Amino acid sequence: MDRVALRGLRARGHHGVFPKEREEGQTFLVDVVLGLDTRPAAADDDLAKTVHYGIVAEQVVAAVEGEPVDLVETLAERIAQVCLQHEGVQEVEVCVHKPEAPITVPFDDVTVTIIRSRV
């Protein structure tokens, strides 16, 4: 299976379990790796036979900016389902970064990574 990756998609969301997270929001970064067969697109040099990553990027950002959820896990699942709606995408790996998580010790990042497939 071939891979098309989008890394570092950035959006502001109001996800989290604490009232401050819901009220003020924070920046989330998202990486998605789409698994699909790109051979038909390459053979015909035809965008219609692959995934349009610009549209995927817009939809991922819209998911982050959308209805708030408590858990990053729920947000990752939402993003995975958006990606799997694209014809040809058989599998997706989603990594959601929450670099402004409300943690009381120094840290660089918090991530949740999931892998989902059509099967």
Characterise the protein shown here.
This protein is of the alpha+beta class. It is 32% helix and 31% strand. It has 4 helices and 4 strands, in the order βαβαααββ. It has helices at residues 19-24, 39-44, 53-65, 72-84, and strands at 2-13, 26-36, 91-97, 111-117. Strands 1-2-3-4 form a 4-stranded antiparallel β-sheet. Helix 3 runs antiparallel to helix 4. The longest helix is centred in the middle third of the chain and has 13 residues, at 53-65. 21% of the residues are buried.
Main features:
119 residues; alpha+beta; 4 strands; elongated
Helix content: 25-40%
What does the average pLDDT come to? 97
Q: Write the H/E string, N to C.
A: EHEHHHEE
Largest sheet: 4 strands, antiparallel
In short:
With 119 residues, the protein is of the alpha+beta class. It is 32% helix and 31% strand.
